[in-house]
């Protein structure tokens, strides 16, 4: 990547980290399509690495609101989903993964706009965890399935529970991706470059949580994600 491209990605990661800090998810949904435009070979590893740091910050801030029972059911499904996602990364070329990523983003946006919301029963939460593990490992976008089942929770509970779930998930994904050889030196260096932008975005989310309507933040995130996915599709096709 050129210096300008890295600066653009860092800006998007900062905004995406702010979005995730405000509503519980959004880093991969917003940042992954932009990285895919410049260098899809850096996905999903770079975003999963950045997400690991972001989820640690989220758990520390919202630890009192974590729903341990719900998070446990989600993790139960997450493990096999993560293994399946790692196998997809090892088997599919970068162009195909970019198409899968774009399709995942557009499907997530469509479900969100349509207002579909399954009831958060144990079986449903476990199934969402499996989908999140697969998508999060294969495309770095694991938030939408969990957001659908936990959408009715309070803001703090949703942020805290999703952060706890994603913390376990990112560590699991990193282990699986390393096992299939998808985490290399380039990926580690690129993720390290993006860490300051992530921290800055998360810090800004505190002000967003108290001053800006959650619905507005969500609409901006969905709009930006849709644009990014469309651009990835056009480039890949």
From TrEMBL:
The keyword Iron-sulfur does not apply. Keywords: Cell membrane, Membrane, Transmembrane, Transmembrane helix, Transport. It is found in: Cell membrane. It is a multi-pass membrane protein. InterPro entries: TM_pro_TauE-like (IPR002781), TSUP (IPR052017). The chain crosses the membrane at residues 41-60, 72-91, 97-116, 164-183, 189-208. Its main location: membrane. Belongs to the 4-toluene sulfonate uptake permease (TSUP) (TC 2.A.102) family. This is Probable membrane transporter protein. It comes from Kocuria aegyptia.
């Amino acid at each position: 990547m050129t210096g300008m491209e890295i600066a653009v990605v860092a800006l998007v990661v900062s905004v995406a980290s702010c979005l995730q800090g405000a509503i519980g998810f959004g880093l991969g949904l917003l940042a992954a399509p932009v990285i895919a435009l410049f260098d899809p070979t850096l996905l999903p590893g770079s975003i999963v690495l950045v997400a690991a740091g972001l989820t640690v910050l989220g758990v520390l801030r919202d630890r009192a609101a974590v729903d341990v029972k719900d998070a446990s059911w989600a993790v139960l499904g997450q493990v096999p989903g993560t293994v399946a996602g790692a196998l997809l990364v090892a088997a599919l070329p970068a162009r195909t993964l970019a198409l899968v990523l774009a399709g995942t983003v557009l499907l997530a946006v469509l479900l969100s706009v349509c207002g579909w919301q399954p009831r958060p029963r144990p079986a449903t939460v476990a199934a969402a965890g499996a989908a999140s593990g697969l998508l999060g490992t294969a495309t770095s976008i694991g938030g939408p399935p969990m957001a659908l089942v936990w959408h009715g929770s309070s803001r703090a509970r949703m942020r805290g529970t999703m952060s706890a779930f994603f913390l376990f998930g990112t560590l699991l994904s990193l282990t699986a991706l390393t096992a299939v050889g998808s985490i290399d030196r380039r990926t580690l260096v690129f993720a390290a470059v993006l860490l300051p932008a992530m921290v800055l975005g998360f810090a800004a989310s505190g002000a967003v949580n108290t001053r800006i309507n959650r619905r507005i933040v969500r609409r901006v995130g969905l709009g930006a994600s849709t644009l990014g996915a469309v651009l990835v599709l056009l480039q890949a096709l």
